[in-house]
Design goal:
Helix content: 55-70%
Protein name: Armadillo repeat-containing protein 6
InterPro entries: ARM-like, ARM-type_fold, Armadillo
Radius of gyration: 27 Å
Keywords: Repeat
Length: 465
């Protein structure tokens, strides 16, 4: 773990450089940065703004502190507007400014401003919500139970207009990102039910639809490294079973067939929710599979929707019946066409290879469909175009392995197009060795397998505890 210093320690070094070594402010800051970085100190959360230091090295009172002190006192509304704007602008600069504001009680001050102006002054209420969003971006640890309850009360208010609804959904989403405890707090406060309710009420508002979709996805993430186990799977089940979210998302997709940005956002969300076989089947029964394939075909030149269509098709193909339906509906040539169209894009190539690998898994007939559409050439082409991209190489090796594992007669076409050389190159990449070896083995190529342990007595070192 990298070393860290406080803002005060950094400021003292800058002051010393100015007073003792007669450096300019800019040179003093640069020297201080070099000193700390040479010692392995992480300065990501340190503000290095020359305007915050006087000519003699003394620290000028930060404008955020001035604004927060003013907001804490009883000031006229026009003064509060300007103070909120100061805090928001500073927080929008970078994470170090947001952390500085957070350490100076910005969260408590802004929460009081939100409570103060709710149902009193809409403009100031909106400004306070916007400022709180800026503050909480990237630092959800600031949230407390009081704030969570206040935010949910605002979301539940039937009188909220669309702007306030969008802001409060965004604020909750920011506080749930990479923070498992906050997610659990909000779920206990009926967040899932309220998000779906907001979605139903605002189907025609694109910005709210996107924000809610993003919020639902955040609840399905297991991205907090501080907890051993997350509730991502349980949340996804609850969103589908209690919120009936799949029906709502697919209905909205049908209403926005001409808006690729909305479709891409919703496809992404659906892919995170189909965590069980019956959920995949529900998407098909609701007409979601046909909708996805049609949208994919109609917008195959649009990189954004292609990426998300590949992801959601791969997720749905986790159900063997849906996998068969996708291939029967022409999913294989569609995926290969997308990989051809966007072969320079590593994400599309990786997602395409992973989709193919999923389609052919335990389905020998699907392997033949891939080969009949020259899928082997496209997979190997992706490996050639992105030789250093570990994800592309890994997924391509997996696709090759799954195609030939039960169809040994399909090995020759791969070998004729140089698969052995390409896969051996992929072995040199750290995360690709296992997949590359599996592909080489099933292609019938020479591969050296390491014997991890021979089972000989006394070969393991025993340590006393």
């Amino acid at each position: 773990m990298a070393k860290q210093v406080t803002q005060g320690t950094f400021d003292d070094v800058v002051k010393e450089n100015i007073q003792e070594f007669e450096m300019t402010i800019g040179a003093a800051i640069t020297d201080a940065v070099q000193q700390f970085e040479s010692q392995g100190v992480n300065l990501a959360m340190i503000i290095r703004d020359p305007s915050l230091y006087s000519a003699d090295g003394e620290k000028v009172v930060h404008p955020v502190i001035v604004a927060l002190n003013s907001l804490s006192s009883d000031q006229p509304e026009d003064v509060d507007v300007s103070n909120l704007e100061v805090v928001k602008q500073e927080c929008d600069v970078d994470l170090s400014r947001r952390c500085f504001a957070g350490k100076n009680d910005a969260y408590k001050v802004l929460l009081k401003s939100i409570q103060k102006y709710k149902n009193v002054n809409k403009d100031l209420f909106v400004k306070a919500l916007q400022t709180m969003c800026s503050l909480c971006n990237g630092q959800p640890d600031l949230l407390d139970q009081q704030g969570a309850e206040e935010f949910m009360n605002i979301m539940k208010d039937e009188n909220c207009d669309r702007l306030i609804t969008e802001l409060i959904v965004r604020l909750v989403r920011l506080n749930c990102t990479k923070h498992e405890m906050n997610r659990r707090i909000f779920v206990k406060l009926d967040l899932i039910k309220e998000l779906v309710k907001v979605l139903k009420k605002n189907k025609s508002c694109i910005t709210i639809v996107k924000e809610v979709a993003f919020g639902l996805r955040v609840l399905t993430q297991d991205d907090d490294v501080r907890v051993p186990f997350g509730s991502a799977h349980e949340n996804a089940k609850q969103i589908v079973m209690e919120g009936d979210a799949l029906r709502e998302l697919i209905d909205i997709c049908k209403e926005h067939t001409n808006d690729v940005s909305v479709q891409a956002e919703l496809f992404n969300t659906v892919s995170k929710l189909v965590v069980r076989d019956e959920f995949c089947q529900e998407v098909k029964d609701l007409g979601g599979l046909d909708l996805i394939l049609k949208s994919f075909h109609a917008n195959i030149t649009h990189k954004g929707i292609v990426k998300q269509a590949l992801v959601v098709l791969k997720a749905l193909a986790g159900n063997d019946d849906i996998k068969v339906a996708i291939v029967k509906a022409g999913g294989v040539p569609l995926v290969l066409a997308a990989m051809t169209q966007h072969q320079g894009n590593a994400t599309v190539c990786a997602s395409g290879c992973l989709a193919i690998a999923t389609f052919v898994l335990r389905q020998p007939d699907h392997c033949t469909v891939v080969m009949d559409n020259d899928g082997h050439q496209m997979i190997l082409q992706a490996m050639k175009v992105h030789p250093k991209d570990e994800i592309v190489q890994k997924q391509a090796c997996m696709a090759v392995r799954n195609i030939v594992a039960r169809n040994r007669e399909l090995c020759d076409p791969f070998l004729e197009f140089g698969a052995e050389e390409l896969i051996n190159r992929a072995r040199a990449l750290p995360s690709c060795e296992d997949e590359a070896k599996a592909a080489l083995r099933d292609l019938g190529c020479q591969v050296d397998l390491k014997e991890r342990w021979t089972g000989e007595r006394g070969s393991l070192q025993q340590e006393a505890y």
